[in-house]
Amino acid sequence: MLAISDPxxxxxxxxxxxxxxxxxxxxxAWVRTAPITPDPWDIETEQKLSEPEAVExxxxxxxxxxxxxxxxxCCGASVGPYNNxxxxxNLFSQGEVLRNGVMDKLPPSPLIIIGYLLxxxxxCNVFAPICWFFFFKNLKRVNKLDAAEI
Length: 150
Ligand SMILES: [Zn+2]
Known about the structure:
The structure is a single chain. This protein is mainly α. Among the domains are: 49-81, no CATH class; 90-150. 57% of the residues lie in helices and 3% in strands. The chain has five helices and two strands, in the order H-H-E-E-H-H-H. The chain has helices at 7-32, 43-49, 89-103, 110-124, 128-149; strands spanning 56-57, 64-65. Helix 3 (89-103) crosses helix 5 (128-149) and helix 4 (110-124) packs antiparallel against helix 5 (128-149). The longest helix is centred in the first third of the chain and has 26 residues, at 7-32. The model has no long low-confidence stretch (mean pLDDT 89). The structure holds zinc ion (ZN). The site of zinc ion has 8 residues, from loops.
């Protein structure tokens, strides 16, 4: 067990601990009293979403999806509610992320670039440089497309 010989250090640690406790307490109070924001859509849209005839759509191609779909039959996007938590199916979700990085039109933001590099390093291991090659090739292609549109 550590013993603090200097009483000033002990007093400083108690003060820092008390300050952290107050900050945590204030954070909890702030979150509990925060106003509940309404949904970004109106009441009519909310009612339509809760109707039994409402169907789920693919977030990428807007194709109607059956209730038990894991991936869109049209474009291959992950549409299942628990794809990323299921041990076998999440491999395909991770593959979709990697495939999107090398084939889709991504906004060239630093967060996406760093995230893709780290993600591919974690899941592709020694093959990550191959992913990086095609990722940067895709970014270059997207930049050319954006320059041509302007
Ligand atoms: Zn789709």
